[in-house]
Design goal:
Layout: E1 2-10, E2 14-21, E3 33-40, E4 45-54, E5 59-63, E6 77-78
Antiparallel strand pairs: 1-2, 1-6, 2-5, 3-4
């Protein structure tokens, strides 16, 4: 398990996601791969990012495709 600490929407629709790892369990390892599902309700569309970081990285940077840029996604905005 992880706790999302911050999601920043940066210039050019780049999302920077930071998390902290919760206490280790039989179901969590440092080499677990992180995947994300991003939903844009205004466009009723999703984009997935599979295996883009390791649990131990505690951060991922995701480039949204041009057709799915978030409305209200402004540089430096915490969501």
């Amino acid at each position: 398990m992880v706790r999302i600490l911050e999601v920043l929407c940066l210039i050019n629709a780049v999302l920077n996601i930071k998390w902290e790892n919760l206490p280790a369990s039989a179901f969590s390892n440092d080499n677990d791969k992180a995947s994300f599902i991003i939903y844009n309700p205004a466009k009723e569309a999703i984009v997935t990012f599979q295996d883009v970081a390791l649990r131990v990285d505690k951060e991922a940077v995701l480039q949204l495709p041009a057709n799915l840029q978030m409305i209200g996604c402004m540089p430096g905005c915490i969501m």
